[in-house]
Amino acid sequence: MLDLIPVLDGISRTDLESIAPPMSERLRLLPAPLDIERTEFTRDLLERDVLEDDRATLIDELLLAVRRGQQIQIGHEQGEYLELLLKKEKVKQILAVLARRTVQSLRRNYHYVVVDTPTQLDDMTMTTLELSDLVLLVCTPDVPSIRATRAAMTLLGELGIRRESMAFVLNRSGRRAEISSTDIRSLFNGYEQLGELPADFRGLQPFINNGSLIAQSGANTALVRALNKFAAQVIERVPIARAA
């Protein structure tokens, strides 16, 4: 996101080629910043500062006074805190606008834009999901993941994401899994399953270590076949004409 801000008004292929290195033919990757840990740490500190007990109590008291029509008096320290909250909210709005413009500009240049979103549903993530033709939830065959996926489906629906645009993919499946893929499909009744990827960490690990793509390695393994089938299902669900 930050790398694209200088060229946001009209992202050209030249801009993208200088920012997003090629992974293979016709595929480019716009990676997360190298100092992502510092970014997350800073955000956590800010959130923790906002949620301090005395400041949370202040907001509750001010809101209660507003509802009752009472006169509000704010001290110097309280005024500084309210200013911080307003600035923080303004930054969130700006980031949401940037996210929208970024996705829209990328869509004008590529047939498909794949966004690996974080688990946190902030304004940027929600903006990206709202603009997506397909929201794909990744589920593994275990109880915590199944519960989290069902909760995500319910929450996203309540937040305005259309049920028709949501689907799921089953990852790390295998014969030894305690919960079968058939049972999982029954639990997600009404949501389309796009693909089932077998558990093969040993075969995948070398590609993770050197950053290459297993699907383009020429290997004829169960995982490669499953990935190709999965990609074909996504293309069938979102044809290029619609994605463009």
Write a concise synopsis of the structure shown.
By secondary structure, the chain is mostly helical. It has 10 helices and 5 strands, in the order αββααααβαβαβααα. Helices cover 55% and strands 10% of the residues.
Structural descriptors:
10 helices; Rossmann fold; two-stranded antiparallel sheet; mainly alpha; 2 domains; three-stranded parallel β-sheet; 5 strands; 244 residues; 55% helix; globular
Question: What does this protein look like?
Answer:
This protein is mainly alpha-helical. It has two domains: 112 residues, no CATH class; 112 residues, P-loop containing nucleotide triphosphate hydrolases (Rossmann fold, 3-Layer(aba) Sandwich). It is 55% helix and 10% strand. The protein contains ten helices and five strands; from the N terminus they run αββααααβαβαβααα. The strands form two sheets. Strands 3-4-5 form a three-stranded parallel β-sheet. Strands 1-2 form a two-stranded antiparallel ribbon. It is globular, with a radius of gyration of 22 Å. The two termini are 21 Å apart. The model has no long low-confidence stretch (mean pLDDT 81).
Mean pLDDT: 81
Instruction: Tally the helices.
Output: 10
Class from secondary-structure proportions: mainly alpha
Q: State the helical fraction.
A: 40-55%
Number of domains: 2
Radius of gyration: 22 Å
> What spatial form do the alpha-carbon principal axes imply?
globular
- Report low-confidence residues grouped into runs of 5 or more: none
What is the spatial order of strands in the main beta sheet? 3-4-5
Listing every helix as H and every strand as E from the N terminus to the C terminus, the arrangement reads HEEHHHHEHEHEHHH
Distance between the termini: 21 Å
The tally of strands reads 5
**What can be said about the biggest beta sheet?**
3 strands, parallel
Instruction: Work out the strand percent.
Output: 5-15%
